[in-house]
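Changelog-linked ticket: MU-OXO-diiron example.
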Amino acid sequence: MKAVELKKDIYWVGAVDWAVRDFHGYETPRGTSYNNYLIIDSEVTLIDTVKYDFAETSIKNIKALVDPARIKHVVVNHIENDHVTSLDKIMELCPDATIYITEKGRKGLERFFDLSAWKLKIVKSGETLNIGKRTLLFLETPMLHWPDSMMTYVKEDKILISQDGFGQHIASSARFDDEYIASNSEAELEDAIKDYYANILMPFGAMIKSKIAEIQKLGLEIDIIAPDHGVIFRQNPGKVLKMYLDMAESRADLSISIVYDTMWHSTELMTVPILNGIRDEGVIGRIIKLRATPQSIAIKEFWKSRGLLVGTPTLNNIMFPTVADFLTHLRGLRPKNRIAGAFGSYGWGGGAVKEAYETLQKMGLQTFEPGIEILYKPSAEDEKKCYDFGVAFAQKVKEYHKNFE
Ligand code: FEO
């Protein structure tokens, strides 16, 4: 896709990855984009580069606007592979350019490339670079989401180039939020923002709040937020900021996600009476079967809900592998302000429900106990137990939810 102008002489020169469905183990059903930005001022500046297999696409976009040899500054906001693995291809075209990067970024970059031939300038928060009519302000954002991360603010144009922050994994010819909403819907864009946040930024809520507060304290006016993935927010950048503040507070609906897998449908049969009990308590429930749902979607659905019920059969005395995988993924995301329980069926001997509780407790989540574990297929009596479990869990979730209202 060809370059797109954000404001006069400031261009998106990235690439759309329509085909990617596995982004380092995270499912991306909508694809993604690798965004980078070219500012044509007296000193031509490139902000970020793209994933290695899209280097030629981005270089073609740059060449359509300017001779790359004129690039004087290359800002590297983040060194993860999807953003720097074409840096060498860019530097071949502008070998005299200076790279602007954080100290942690430099340490990481030297693991990718021989830096001896490149000019590097280490930058810190608050430092600026004048490129002609414009001034760039660097803002370090450590652990958002890597130690090296930073954002770059174009003062005169009020554009925040936010690297991974505020991104979404969306492949589209729409480059801006208003274009995407017109061709899809606002709800679809919000869903993509939540999906990305839940799977990438969930562990960093406290840092997100403090970084947004820092930006607000600096009094930076923001006309455009330009992330390194997905669409650029020009219609309503305030809305995505507000969404981030809400998500950083670990806000959740008064709802319950039942995330499960099943061997011979017994655990699956338990989900229905549990859901009926939840519904009869006036709480919305949703059932998510792990082998039928991309794990990243299951994580996002969990993240919407105040309550989580994990359903797992016992296989060889431990959790079913897909459930264990889901909980391992979730544990790394360090969820907060959720209450969780577990249930499942077994044949010879149980153990999976106990193990599920141990994992939920390791995450630091409040747990609702005891869970229920039933032998083989649920009987009518077992179904009643499941219903009562759903009722009792929904009551507990309602009580717990009041802490956050
Ligand atoms: Fe888009 Fe942290 O890489």
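Closing comment: Example verified and attached. The mean pLDDT is 96. The CA atoms of residues 158 and 220 lie 8 Å apart.
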